[in-house]
Design goal:
Strand content: 5-15%
Radius of gyration: 23 Å
Largest sheet: 3 strands, antiparallel
Strand order of the largest sheet: 1-2-3
Number of helices: 13
Number of strands: 5
Length: 254
């Protein structure tokens, strides 16, 4: 509801009645001073709203005549190995450490983490319900040990005033990241898990299942390696580099 309230705010602020011409909505979208991905989010909110209005009140669905603005496909930002080490070395409460490590260990979404209870965990991993349905995500034994005894029967994440809200969990992660000099939140840890999973030899199809992406194309964005990765892999995999390395080791593979 918060997302739709935000996504429809420009329409509400500009028009006293729902506009019935595509040009009016196109001008509204074009006039938004926001990032391309945010403009695309407003378009999606408007599309859902107009579809509902058409069914409920017979309003013309003008979004059917408006193509989606093309969102920018920026490479996801992720923490470096050193930053991950710094984050894991912070002095945190057991609850806060469990939140940070579970996100880094599984790449689950904030909403999935916020709704966990003790019954979600089994020998096979943790059962979450996300945008693409329910799935089981593997969890390491180290992370699982942090979760023992946390929360209560109904909620895993609690504080002095009861269950933590999604905003409360976001604050936990943002505070921890600020302590290592990084601006970001839970989704940064999801990107970090995905990026490092592939960099450490993980399979993109396995990653798709873990992240709960409905389309492989969404997961494949993490396959795009940065310049540093390209340089490192080239140095170790180029036939010329390998030949020189072997020669430097007396003919043996170093």
């Amino acid at each position: 509801m918060r997302w739709y309230r935000y996504g429809l705010a420009p329409l509400r602020d500009r028009f006293p009645r729902v506009p019935g011409r595509p040009a009016e909505v196109e001008q509204l979208l074009a006039g938004l001073v926001v990032a391309p991905a945010t403009r695309h989010g407003h378009w999606r909110a408007l599309k859902a709203f107009y579809r509902w209005c058409a069914r409920r009140y017979g309003v013309r669905d003008v979004l059917a005549d408006i193509d989606a603005p093309r969102p920018s496909r920026l490479l996801p930002v992720a923490l470096t190995d050193d930053q991950v080490d710094q984050l894991l070395e912070l002095e945190l409460s057991r609850r806060d450490r469990a939140i940070v490590e579970l996100l880094l260990d599984t790449g689950m979404r904030l909403g999935e983490l916020a709704t966990l209870d003790r019954g979600a965990f089994s020998a096979g991993g943790v059962l979450v319900s996300g945008k693409s349905g329910a799935r089981v995500i593997p969890v390491t034994a180290e992370t699982r040990r942090l979760l023992v005894g946390l929360g209560d029967a109904g909620c895993l994440w609690t504080g002095r005033r009861g269950a933590l809200t999604i905003g409360g969990i976001e604050d936990v992660v943002e505070r921890a990241l600020r302590r290592i000099g990084v601006a970001g939140g839970p989704h940064l840890l999801r990107h970090t898990f995905a990026t490092l999973f592939l960099r450490n030899g993980g399979n993109v199809f396995t990653l798709q299942r873990i992240l709960g992406h409905a389309q492989l194309s969404t997961t494949r964005i993490y396959v795009a390696l940065d310049v540093r990765d390209l340089q490192l892999q080239h140095a170790s995999c180029s036939p010329i580099a390998r030949r020189r390395t072997a020669a430097g080791c007396g003919g043996a593979v170093c």
